[in-house]
């Protein structure tokens, strides 16, 4: 093998790892139920970051499978459950949420991720706030 080929492979591997910046990131979820007296601010981790992807300008020339774009998604996750304070007895006061343990660049799985760009939503409380740390 030529030294040029080996250097190209090494640079490609190095650049590929450095260019994909997908990792667990701190995030705060605000949860409230109409029946409950408080809003709960939950500190958790989500997958966020940049993944290398292909330009699909030549989509008429490529197979459909080659057009999928990589996103930063969960590799490993677990679920935790929080108790929303101030709920009456007839209301279920629990909220389960995902916690990212590790992340990867890959195809978006609609079983546990929203793969569509969402409209801008507010993430705040309208009721008095309680804090829940993970």
From TrEMBL:
Write the record's keywords in alphabetical order, separated by commas.
Disulfide bond, Glycoprotein, Hormone, Secreted, Signal
Biological process (GO), any one: G protein-coupled receptor signaling pathway
For this UniProt entry, which residues form the secretion signal? 1-18
Localisation per UniProt entry: Secreted
Give the CDD domains listed for this entry. GHB_like (cd00069)
Cellular component terms (Gene Ontology): cytoplasm; extracellular space
Q: Which PROSITE patterns match?
A: GLYCO_HORMONE_BETA_1 (PS00261), GLYCO_HORMONE_BETA_2 (PS00689)
Matching InterPro entries: Cystine-knot_cytokine, Glyco_hormone_CN, Gonadotropin_bsu, Gonadotropin_bsu_CS
Q: Tell me, what is one Gene Ontology molecular-function annotation carried by this entry?
A: hormone activity
**Residues in Glycoprotein hormone subunit beta domain copies:** 21-125
Determine if 4Fe-4S is one of this entry's keywords: no
Matching entries from Pfam families are given as:
Cys_knot (PF00007)
Q: What is its main location?
A: secreted
Query: Which superkingdom heads the taxonomic lineage of this protein's source?
Result: Eukaryota
* Subunit-level organization: Heterodimer of a common alpha chain and a unique beta chain which confers biological specificity to thyrotropin, lutropin, follitropin and gonadotropin.
Task: Give the family, as the similarity comment puts it.
Answer: Belongs to the glycoprotein hormones subunit beta family.
Q: What is this protein called?
A: Thyrotropin subunit beta
Protein species of origin: Chaetops frenatus
Query: Which gene does this sequence derive from?
Result: Tshb
């Amino acid at each position: 093998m030529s030294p040029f080929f080996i250097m190209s492979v090494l640079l490609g591997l190095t650049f590929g790892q450095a260019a994909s910046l997908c990792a667990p990131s701190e995030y705060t979820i605000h949860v409230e139920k109409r029946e409950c007296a408080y809003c709960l601010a939950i500190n958790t981790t989500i997958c966020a970051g940049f993944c290398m992807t292909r330009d699909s300008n030549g989509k008429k020339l490529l197979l459909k499978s080659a057009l999928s774009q990589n996103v930063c998604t969960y590799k490993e996750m677990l679920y935790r459950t929080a108790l929303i304070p101030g709920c009456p007895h007839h209301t279920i006061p629990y909220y389960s949420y995902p916690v990212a343990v590790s992340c990867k660049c890959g195809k978006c799985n609609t079983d546990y991720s929203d793969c569509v760009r969402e409209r801008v939503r507010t993430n705040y409380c309208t009721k008095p706030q309680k804090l829940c740390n993970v």
